[in-house]
Amino acid sequence: MPASDAGASVSRDAAAAPVVALRSITRRFPGVLANDRVDLALVPGRVHVLLGENGAGKSTLIAILAGLQQPDAGEILVDGRPVAIASPRRALDLGIGTVFQHEMLVPTLSVVENLALGGGPWWRRCRRDAAAVRYRAVAAPLGILIDPDRLVGDLSLGERQQVEIVRALWRGGRILVLDEPTSMLAPDEIGALGRLLGRLRERGTAILLVTHKLDEAYALGDEVSVLRGGRLVGRIEPEELARLDRDAAVARIVRAMFEETGAGDPIVAAEGGRAARRRPPAPDAPDVLRVEGLSVAGPDGRRVVEGVSFAVRAGEIFGIAGVDGNGQKPLLEAIAGQRPASGRVWLDGEEIGGLAVPARHRRGLRYVTDDRLGEGTIAQAPVAEALVLKRIGEAPFWRSGIVRPAAIEAHAADAIDRFDIRVPGPGTPVGRLSGGNIQKVLLARELHGRAKVILYNKPTYGLDLNNIRQTRGRIRDGADAGMAVVVVSTDLDELVSLCGRIGVMSRGRLVGIVDTDDGDGDRDGGGARARIGQLMIGMPVR
Amino acid sequence: MTGGASHGPLGAALRLVLPVALALLAGGALLAAVGVDPLAYYAHVVRRGMLTWLGLQETLTRMAPLLVLGASLIVAFRAGVWNLGVDGQFLLAAVTVAAAAPLLAEHLPGGLMLAAGFVLAAAVGAAWSLVPALLKAYRQVNEIITTLMMTFLGVGLANTLVKLAFRDPGTTVAQTRTLAVEDRLPRLFDTIVTGGLPIALVVVVVVHLLVTRTAWGMRLRVVGASPKAALHAGLAVPGLTVAAFAVSGGLAGAAAAIEVLGVRGLVQADWNPAYGLTVIPFVFLARFNGFAVIAFTFLFSMLSIGGESASRRFGVPHYYILVLVGLLLVFLALVDYLGERRRKAAA
Judged by CB atoms within 8 Å, which residues 209-248 of B form the interface with A? Predict the structure, then answer.
């Protein structure tokens, strides 16, 4: 790789050999593949931006670098030699300093006391004077001028972050990992952070900046990698990024973040034919689900969903796109009846806004949550119970309030058979199942009986290819059978391949609805993707 | 959320027998160290606790309130409500029913008076759980803190009531009026065991079935296992929380009624047996299973009755029994932990 790319004021004397290289890192958790063969290299004097939605696997990757978690497969090279980062201490010894999203400072201690913590054996007194000298040696060249005797509790968030950066570099760190560093900062503090990163870059520190904000990726980064569903799905080389102006760069990052999955998502390619064959719902098909002026208040009283209106016809799959956390989940929860909301919701012409979850469920409104293990089921509960979790007290599973284990078991056996749930038996706790099988349990529960409307929240997130294919098949089958389907996803490929219309949410509002059938007949959604990307980052659409 | 262990009966038996053996061994070493023959001591405890007719009757009598407190805790813990305030609920109910029963006895026939006493005690226990219940259900205030504080208040209030409002003017010691022996819970056959024991056994079994076999119990367990999943399933989480608290507090009150109406007939000032705190670890070890609670409660009652007698014979203070129980808990937890690790390793 040429070490002389233009633009950046970077000292490239040190050749662009990576100081840290992750090779094919894989990390599994029960039910989730958090990192799937991730490759990543950090080069001295460069800011490597790792972009991804919540749950994309960024935090796991950071935890692996920080020595908090061990990869199940793959290797980590530091200075070209394979190492095991068995503990946080080992990470620091290797020169890897991490600044976590949540503050790790003691507010009642001074700056220098915080820095001296953990410095020596526990029986030795903290050497504050030595720490103060060291503080000046580390902080001053970076332009950090915080009085070392101030209490951390009195510092602004930006100043605290600077202290955390000093601490990360305290023991001669050459590699700085920053997890969502701007999430708590005021705009002028973000500017200061940018300048600080600039100085670190000049000094040859390799920086990994983890974020989900597109503009930061451009403003602060030299190169970009995009993580989605644990896989590396997009990559912008430093040479390319340096060439682009702001708008072009942001557009390129949007493309990398939301579209560039040709290689990562073979299913979409394989299914292209089928997606095209799905005929659109009849124009005179009735609206099964209608939502009007739906607003939801968040815990702090601010509205997280604001005046959302849309309608979905029988046989239609309506997609909702948007960067994670823009109100998609509260919107679905409000429609499902889990959250108080203002506005009106109709199901088959009947207003259901006043009904609770079980009543809506009985009327055929179903919600497949994205938090499968934590919210959709209970880890310790047997599969058979998970399958009737939303029907407690109903016949035939309960009669006069008394449980009928045989009926529940028979129901479970039937669901296990029809949905191909791989499980030792109906008594197995849900928590022991793989993510794909947990999803099948949820699908079996929500699709059972007379389902009319199905709301999916990130239905394929964290699943392996086979289960993604099966889940998408179930979604299409439901629509083909005449259900009105709503799919929330952060995977544009998925939405384009499933949906006829895609609404885009931004800051709680439905900012636009895009027709994926752009008229050229191939349904590749090329034009639709661009329009959705623009809506997502708040650009005006022609 | 399923409770009981999922391995063979042999493994289950081993899990129970092994810790008992280890606890006896360690406790025996302690006794030997202070110059008491452990075998003779244990033999005396067991003989006096359950092999003599009188000892067995005393043990069964001691069991009754503990069982109902166990039932109270099963309901709460299954719902994820850590009601550590059963002692406050128990004591206030005890004082109230002790004060009310002699008055009620003047106006109501026996059976009705006893029933009214139970209802009153349950109502007081439930009422004393209301503040933590509402705070937990609607303001997410940690109920461990609030129930402990309410116990602090409850114990103080109960004492105050005995010394002031409920005091029997006819005696010099501060205590409530005494319920005449013939007005108390009837005794079973020719024993000293009162009707409280069958009531308590029925309560534990009913609560066990309620929690494991009914729709309401399932809702309770879902709320206890995951409030998030409960919300997703559309359960009325605050309502269920308050209900679990009320039932738990009510049962704590009923336990007090069994003790006062059956055995004591009065409450003296500064009386606080702290049964609730004693029962809590056993309920955990029983994994909220009612039948296992019966077994553990019997074991503890037997040890404490036998130990009280042994303290006179051997000069070993009866607190030693608590040491033994403590050792038993440690070894039970240890064996449980190791078994769990082995099971995980095998899986």
Answer: 213-216, 218-219, 222, 225-226, 228-229, 231-236
Q: How many CB atoms lie within 10 A of CB B291?
A: 12
Minimal CA separation from A283 to chain B, in Å: 34
C-beta atoms of B216 and A401 within 8 A? yes
Tokens for B243, please give them.
């209900």
Note the Cα B329 to chain centre separation in Å: 16
In degrees and rounded to multiples of 5, residue B271 shows phi and psi of -80, 120
Task: Kindly report the number of other CB atoms within 10 A of residue A186's CB atom.
Answer: 12
**Best mutation target, B139, B210, B226, B235, to test chain A (most A CBs within 10 A):** B226
Dist CA A161 CA A145 (whole Å): 13
Mutate to test the interface with A, among B232, B237, B344 (most CBs of A within 10 A): B232
Q: CA B207 → CA A88, B130, B210, B288, B290, distances in Å?
A: 48, 20, 5, 10, 7
Tell me: ipTM over 0.85: no
Q: Which two tokens stand for residue A128?
A: 């504050």
Q: Do residues A205 and A176 touch, judged by C-beta distance below 8 A?
A: yes
Q: In Å, how far from its chain's centre is CA A483?
A: 28
**Pick from B125, B115, B110, B269: nearest CA to B179:** B110
pLDDT tens string A486-542: 999 877 778 888 998 999 998 899 999 988 765 554 555 567 777 887 787 665 544
Residue of B213, B216, B233 with shortest CB distance to A389: B233
Distance from CA of A16 to the nearest CA of B (A): 45
On whether the pTM is more than 0.80, the answer is no
Q: How far apart are CA A480 and CA A482, in angstroms?
A: 5
